[in-house]
């Protein structure tokens, strides 16, 4: 191809991409459009970044009291300031919603317990818990309590958190639990013989395992919560442009191409957070429990994610690992 034709093709393609991207952004997604969360309290873990931050912004816009459970106070306070500024003084003042920052490190059972202790002391009600925080494909690391980091944060930390807040959720029923998983669960297995990955560690497998654990946990919890008025559903958000890939090394030369592709084809955090917002607020899913969603619609699971025996065994072992059962 002649250089002029190549330049024209590249420019034309770039312009088309930009127009498509702009149109997508202009069609503001609105899973919670019109719904009010006034008077409701929502906890979102990992609310200072990516999907959690987008969900916090939208639920605050819907007038909820939003508690941001974050591991780094400075990052969380900065995000809270930016969210308030984004909503604007008027919307924030008229809205009646509130944004509260609380420290929560899911890699520390002590921190999870301290967070829950404070919530139980201070909050008269809890309407929605969104288990959103996550860590992706990090090098082999252990949590404060000696668990493999991805299993420890993505599954065990949230397991303890949810269990300690269950009483408050039940007292506030109808209430909801939303568990952010990933389609990558498909590549995981619950290998009970090596949950701490001491025999071998594969960072992709361990992420997938933790996300499979999220779904099994949500299904088992839904079963245990039948008749209580507390529902629990899991979801995958799609591929979203967030900070999740911080541990993934992209070669320097490939970075511009990656940035272009992710900008063009990945969801924005607001687009990615739609299913979380939907499950947290929509009357459509009132009373729906134990299901798995993507793009605000119920989706089918692979048999491995519906294995009730594995789900129960994982529950029992998790109870022991986090110290709920001696
Ligand atoms: N992005 C995607 O394409 C995608 C796809 C499928 C599923 N997901 C899931 O979506 C959820 C949100 O991820 P994201 O994409 O929004 O990524 P993100 O921008 O990296 O946000 C993750 C959040 O989790 C927090 N976090 C990490 N470790 C924590 C810990 N030990 N204690 C408390 N908080 C911790 C992070 O805090 P810091 O900012 O302090 O690190 C951050 O606020 C995750 O569960 C992820 O598995 C994402």
Automatic annotation (TrEMBL):
One of its GO terms (cellular component) is cytosol. Keywords: Oxidoreductase. Belongs to the short-chain dehydrogenases/reductases (SDR) family. It comes from Gallus gallus. It comes from the Eukaryota. Transmembrane segments: none annotated. GO terms for molecular function: all-trans-retinol dehydrogenase (NADP+) activity. This is Retinol dehydrogenase 14. The gene is RDH14. InterPro entries: NAD(P)-bd_dom_sf (IPR036291), SDR_fam (IPR002347). The keyword Membrane does not apply.
